[in-house]
Design a protein that fits this description.
It contains 14 helices and 31 strands. The chain is an alpha+beta fold. The protein has five domains: about 180 residues, Rossmann fold, CATH 3.40.50.300; about 80 residues, Elongation Factor Tu (Ef-tu), domain 3 (Beta Barrel); about 70 residues, 2-Layer Sandwich (Alpha-Beta Plaits), CATH 3.30.70; about 110 residues, Alpha-Beta Plaits, CATH 3.30.70.240; about 110 residues, Elongation factor 4, C-terminal domain (Alpha-Beta Plaits, 2-Layer Sandwich). It has an eight-stranded antiparallel β-sheet. The protein has a six-stranded mixed β-sheet with strand order 2-3-1-4-5-6, sandwiched between helices. Strands 21, 22, 23, 24, 25 and 26 form a six-stranded antiparallel β-sheet that branches.
Length: about 600
């Protein structure tokens, strides 16, 4: 059984055709009937289809006959976007081989390289595939040379295929059987299975996906989860085809799912080990490192009485997205909510959209920021995720912010604009080297807070979409940061405050005030919008009052009558201002992210 099993994943940069290649494999192996087939069939979420990106890894089993023998192929399709690289790392941990897909029209990009290194760290067998060879602008020879340089393989080892037309896909399936090793493991040893994903089903509870490393698991077995120590009955085990297929047993080396009536999200941890109660394994499998969120933002229910509902939704959501973390917090303006950690701004946007679609939860999101280390004069070190958590300025000794090492790969024509962009973002050039005559790799060290907002969008627009970008965190460095508050009629709107570098505070404050002036609706009284650093106001805009012409009915005659009416109106406005509150629309919180 094991010698005829192959576990592999597909890794590539965004839009290099992973999901389309997977479609052709499912067609050739007859896993799906022609009636069920559709484009990017593994991208089952509506959001994935709309945006044309893969967000979740998807596992599926195929049967393939090679030289008269039947093989079981377990494919895990992975996302290409840097915000979902955690999904890729989990897929890689449950495979023995990987298809490295490179777009023949674009060549090697930043994410291609970083995903490749992830695979090499796990000792996976790499099969290079050049995709989109049917496109007129394909540069097969040039890209072949790039792959040979990167992998050190022979040119004849690189497979040529087209996910669109299906050309060369059979050769890829043959190569998977020939080159990728069968899983190793001891079928007679105690059960050890690694959980690499889990989903919530409202009828059946929590469904965990796992890969069996040693032993085997049968329906009805008493199993326990190693980290939590909880015991369960395996009500149903099976393999993942397009739908779940129940089986009596999942053998060693195979991938499957388990349903055991688990109700609460906390009990299933991705990276945990499943073992038998009667004959447990001696130690847990080394799972995945804990994910470190890069961007933090507050999420608050629009209706304050939906707090508990939001908590339940976030817990269920976390099952399906293990890179998302949250903890309770409260705000003066918005009441009770949660401080959530994300891997990037796209991740934040996707989470917000999925909460709305899957759980019908409408949330208000505050200004995102990164996590800082604050050293106080008493010698304490605090982790601050939220501007309101900053101690008084007199108590702060120094503040350190996270730094990243960023890799930008681009055409040499865009060298100047990219350099300028990185310098504006306080980047320091570490290294530059020409990969080919017209392709350039730049390595920068820069603060994470500078790339959180709009760095990626700007990079894409100045390089006409050619530049690709990847980063990893390298540590903390001291920085000159200030807390920028936004005041509405003198009251601080804590959901809009942010921590920002002192040199950028004036520009950012100015833009914030101008943006809010457009977005806050006019009231019966003037609204002063101010940006302040400490006690110093650095920018101001005023939303003028809606004014009713009270003197319209006085035509001609004595001026004192008009004055009396205007005076009366003034008194009314003054009283209204004392009791009136300024409503900040949800669009204002989101628009702060898109200031340019």
């Amino acid at each position: 059984m094991m010698k005829n099993t192959r576990n592999f994943c597909i890794i590539a940069h965004i839009d290099h055709g992973k999901s389309t290649l997977a479609d052709r494999m499912l067609e050739i192996t007859n896993t799906l009937t022609a009636r069920d087939m559709e484009n990017q069939v593994l991208d089952s979420m509506d959001l994935e289809k709309e945006k044309g990106i893969t967000i979740k890894s998807h596992a599926i089993q195929m049967d393939y006959v090679y030289k008269g023998e039947k093989y079981t192929l377990n494919l895990i399709d992975t996302p290409g976007h840097v915000d979902f690289s955690y999904e890729v790392s989990r897929a890689i941990a449950s495979c023995e081989g990987a298809l490295l897909v490179v777009d023949a029209t674009q060549g090697i990009q930043a994410q291609t390289i970083s995903n490749l290194y992830l695979a090499i760290e796990h000792d996976l067998e790499i099969i290079p595939v050049l995709n989109k060879i049917d496109v007129e602008s394909a540069m097969v020879d040039v890209v072949t040379d790039q792959v040979v340089d990167l992998l050190g393989c022979k040119p004849e080892e690189i497979l040529l295929a087209s996910g669109k037309t299906g050309e060369g896909v059979r050769d890829v399936l043959d190569a998977i059987v020939e080159r990728i090793p069968a899983p190793t493991g001891d079928p007679d040893a105690p059960l050890q299975a690694l959980i690499f994903d889990s989903v919530f089903n409202s009828f059946r509870g929590i469904i965990a996906y796992f890969k069996v490393l040693n032993g085997s698991i049968k329906t009805g077995d008493k199993v326990k989860f190693f980290n939590t120590g909880k015991e369960y009955q395996a009500d149903e085990v099976g393999v993942l085809k397009m739908k779940m297929n129940p089986r009596d047993e999942i053998p060693c080396g195979s991938v499957g799912y388990i349903i055991s009536g688990i109700k609460t999200a906390v009990e299933v941890k991705v990276g945990d080990t499943i073992t038998h109660v009667s004959n447990p394994c001696a130690e847990a499998i080394a799972g995945f490192e804990e994910v470190k969120p890069m961007v933090f933002a507050g999420m608050y229910p629009v209706e304050t009485d939906q707090y508990e509902e939001l908590r339940a939704s976030l817990e269920k959501f976390q099952l399906n997205d293990a890179s998302f973390v949250f903890e309770p917090e409260s705000s003066l303006a918005l009441g009770f909510g949660f401080r959530c950690g994300f891997l990037g701004l796209l991740h934040l946007e996707i989470v917000q959209e999925r909460l709305f679609r899957e759980f019908n939860m409408d949330v208000i999101t505050t200004v995102p920021n990164v996590s800082y280390k604050v050293y106080t004069t008493q010698g304490e070190c605090l982790d601050v995720h939220n501007p309101s958590g900053l101690p008084a300025p007199t108590l702060i000794d120094k503040i350190e912010e996270p730094y990243i090492r960023a890799q930008v790969i681009s055409k040499a024509d865009y060298y100047g604009p990219i350099m300028k962009l990185c310098l504006d973002k306080r980047g320091v050039l570490i290294n530059q080297h020409y990969m080919t005559a017209d392709r350039l790799e730049l390595t920068y060290e820069m603060p994470l807070s500078e790339i959180v907002f709009d760095f990626y969008d700007k990079l894409k627009s100045i390089s006409k979409g050619y530049a690709s970008f990847d980063y990893h965190v390298i540590g903390f460095k001291e920085a000159k940061l200030v807390k920028l508050d936004i005041l509405l009629n003198g009251d601080p709107a804590d959901a809009l405050s942010s921590l920002i570098h002192a040199d950028h505070a004036y520009d950012f404050g100015r833009k914030m005030c101008e943006k809010l002036k457009e977005l806050i609706p006019r009231q019966q009284f003037d609204i002063a919008i101010q940006a302040a650093v400490g006690a110093k106001i650095i920018a101001r805009e005023t939303v003028k009052a809606v004014r009713k012409d009270v003197t319209a009915k006085c035509y001609g005659g004595d001026i004192s009558r008009k004055r009396k009416l205007l005076e009366k109106q003034k008194q009314g406005k003054k009283r209204m201002r004392q009791i009136g509150t300024v409503e900040v629309p949800q669009s204002a919180f989101m628009a702060v992210l898109k200031l340019d």
